Amino acid sequence: MLAEELPAVEPVDVDWSHVERLLPRRTVPTPTDKAAYPSGWTPQRGNPSLPYSVRRSVNHMLPVYLRIMEDGVKRLTVVRNVRGDIWKLHDELKRHLEETNSRYIASRVNEVSLYVQFKGEYVQQVKDWLRERGL
Protein backbone atom coordinates (compact mmCIF):
# COMPACT_ATOMS: atom_id res chain seq x y z
CA MET A 1 0.00 0.00 0.00
CA LEU A 2 1.08 3.47 -0.68
CA ALA A 3 0.98 6.25 1.86
CA GLU A 4 -1.89 7.94 0.03
CA GLU A 5 -4.11 4.88 0.40
CA LEU A 6 -3.72 4.56 4.21
CA PRO A 7 -6.54 6.00 6.28
CA ALA A 8 -5.79 9.12 8.27
CA VAL A 9 -5.03 8.72 11.96
CA GLU A 10 -7.24 10.75 14.21
CA PRO A 11 -6.24 11.42 17.85
CA VAL A 12 -8.97 10.71 20.38
CA ASP A 13 -8.93 12.27 23.84
CA VAL A 14 -10.36 9.69 26.23
CA ASP A 15 -10.70 10.07 29.99
CA TRP A 16 -9.11 6.92 31.47
CA SER A 17 -9.54 7.89 35.13
CA HIS A 18 -12.48 5.50 35.61
CA VAL A 19 -10.47 2.60 34.21
CA GLU A 20 -7.23 3.45 36.04
CA ARG A 21 -8.88 3.38 39.47
CA LEU A 22 -9.95 -0.25 38.82
CA LEU A 23 -6.41 -1.41 37.98
CA PRO A 24 -4.32 -2.77 40.85
CA ARG A 25 -1.80 -0.32 42.29
CA ARG A 26 1.88 -0.97 41.83
CA THR A 27 2.65 -0.14 45.45
CA VAL A 28 0.68 -0.14 48.67
CA PRO A 29 -0.43 3.44 49.41
CA THR A 30 0.68 5.21 52.56
CA PRO A 31 -2.15 5.05 55.11
CA THR A 32 -3.94 8.27 55.98
CA ASP A 33 -3.56 9.63 59.51
CA LYS A 34 -6.60 8.99 61.70
CA ALA A 35 -7.26 8.92 65.43
CA ALA A 36 -8.38 5.26 65.24
CA TYR A 37 -8.82 2.69 62.50
CA PRO A 38 -11.80 0.28 62.33
CA SER A 39 -9.53 -2.77 62.12
CA GLY A 40 -7.55 -1.81 65.23
CA TRP A 41 -4.38 -1.27 63.18
CA THR A 42 -1.97 1.34 64.52
CA PRO A 43 0.75 3.11 62.51
CA GLN A 44 4.35 2.82 63.54
CA ARG A 45 5.17 5.69 65.91
CA GLY A 46 8.84 4.94 66.31
CA ASN A 47 10.69 5.25 69.58
CA PRO A 48 14.10 6.95 69.24
CA SER A 49 15.03 6.09 72.84
CA LEU A 50 15.24 2.38 71.98
CA PRO A 51 18.47 0.99 70.45
CA TYR A 52 16.47 -1.24 68.09
CA SER A 53 13.49 -1.01 65.75
CA VAL A 54 11.26 -3.41 63.85
CA ARG A 55 10.56 -2.19 60.33
CA ARG A 56 7.01 -2.77 59.11
CA SER A 57 6.30 -4.98 56.10
CA VAL A 58 5.36 -3.64 52.66
CA ASN A 59 1.70 -3.75 53.72
CA HIS A 60 2.44 -1.64 56.85
CA MET A 61 1.93 -4.64 59.16
CA LEU A 62 4.13 -5.90 61.98
CA PRO A 63 6.47 -8.63 60.66
CA VAL A 64 5.61 -11.22 63.31
CA TYR A 65 4.80 -14.63 61.89
CA LEU A 66 3.91 -18.13 63.07
CA ARG A 67 5.79 -20.99 61.41
CA ILE A 68 4.15 -24.39 61.76
CA MET A 69 6.44 -27.32 61.00
CA GLU A 70 6.50 -31.10 61.37
CA ASP A 71 2.79 -31.71 60.74
CA GLY A 72 1.68 -28.97 63.11
CA VAL A 73 3.64 -30.22 66.10
CA LYS A 74 6.44 -27.63 66.09
CA ARG A 75 5.36 -23.96 66.28
CA LEU A 76 7.79 -21.06 66.03
CA THR A 77 7.13 -17.34 66.43
CA VAL A 78 9.38 -15.26 64.17
CA VAL A 79 10.02 -11.49 64.40
CA ARG A 80 11.60 -10.25 61.16
CA ASN A 81 13.08 -6.94 59.93
CA VAL A 82 14.84 -6.15 63.21
CA ARG A 83 17.20 -3.16 62.92
CA GLY A 84 19.72 -1.96 65.48
CA ASP A 85 20.67 -3.92 68.58
CA ILE A 86 18.95 -7.24 67.83
CA TRP A 87 20.31 -8.84 71.03
CA LYS A 88 18.77 -6.15 73.23
CA LEU A 89 15.38 -6.72 71.55
CA HIS A 90 15.80 -10.46 72.01
CA ASP A 91 16.66 -10.14 75.72
CA GLU A 92 13.80 -7.74 76.54
CA LEU A 93 11.21 -9.66 74.52
CA LYS A 94 12.31 -13.02 75.91
CA ARG A 95 12.15 -11.66 79.48
CA HIS A 96 8.63 -10.35 78.81
CA LEU A 97 7.42 -13.65 77.33
CA GLU A 98 8.92 -15.71 80.16
CA GLU A 99 7.33 -13.46 82.80
CA THR A 100 3.97 -13.51 81.04
CA ASN A 101 3.90 -17.29 80.48
CA SER A 102 5.78 -18.30 83.67
CA ARG A 103 8.10 -20.71 81.89
CA TYR A 104 11.40 -20.92 80.02
CA ILE A 105 11.14 -20.13 76.29
CA ALA A 106 13.81 -21.34 73.87
CA SER A 107 14.90 -18.76 71.32
CA ARG A 108 17.32 -18.09 68.50
CA VAL A 109 18.77 -14.91 66.96
CA ASN A 110 19.96 -14.66 63.36
CA GLU A 111 22.02 -11.49 62.98
CA VAL A 112 22.58 -11.97 59.24
CA SER A 113 18.91 -12.43 58.29
CA LEU A 114 17.78 -9.92 60.97
CA TYR A 115 15.21 -12.07 62.75
CA VAL A 116 14.49 -13.43 66.23
CA GLN A 117 12.75 -16.77 66.70
CA PHE A 118 10.93 -18.12 69.76
CA LYS A 119 9.79 -21.70 70.27
CA GLY A 120 6.03 -21.66 70.77
CA GLU A 121 2.98 -19.73 69.62
CA TYR A 122 3.34 -16.16 70.92
CA VAL A 123 2.41 -14.06 67.89
CA GLN A 124 -0.28 -11.95 69.56
CA GLN A 125 1.78 -11.39 72.71
CA VAL A 126 4.77 -10.24 70.64
CA LYS A 127 2.63 -7.92 68.51
CA ASP A 128 1.06 -6.36 71.61
CA TRP A 129 4.48 -5.87 73.19
CA LEU A 130 5.84 -4.21 70.03
CA ARG A 131 2.81 -1.90 69.79
CA GLU A 132 3.23 -0.85 73.44
CA ARG A 133 6.76 0.25 72.61
CA GLY A 134 5.69 2.16 69.49
CA LEU A 135 7.39 -0.19 67.03
List keywords for this structure.
alpha+beta, 135 residues, two-stranded antiparallel sheet, 22% helix, Translation Initiation Factor Eif1, elongated, single chain
CATH superfamily (homologous) name of the domain at 45-132: SUI1-like domain
Give the assembly state of these chains.
single chain
Q: What structural class do you assign from the helix and strand content?
A: alpha+beta
What is the CATH architecture term of the domain at 45-132? 2-Layer Sandwich
Q: What is the element string, with H for helices and E for strands?
A: HEEEEHEEH
Whole-Å distance between the termini?
67 Å
Widest sheet: strand ordering? 2-3-6-5
According to CATH, what is the topology of the domain at 45-132?
Translation Initiation Factor Eif1
Count of DSSP H/I helices: 3
According to DSSP, the number of beta strands is: 6
- Largest sheet, strands/sense/barrel: 4 strands, antiparallel
> What is the gyration radius calculated from CA atoms?
24 Å
Q: CATH class of the domain at 45-132, please? A: Alpha Beta
Q: Give the low-confidence spans.
A: none
Instruction: Give the strand content.
Output: 15-25%
Overall geometry: elongated
Helix content: 10-25%
Give the mean pLDDT: 89
Keywords: Mitochondrion, Ribonucleoprotein, Ribosomal protein
GO molecular function: structural constituent of ribosome
GO cellular component, one term: mitochondrial large ribosomal subunit
Organism: Amphibalanus amphitrite
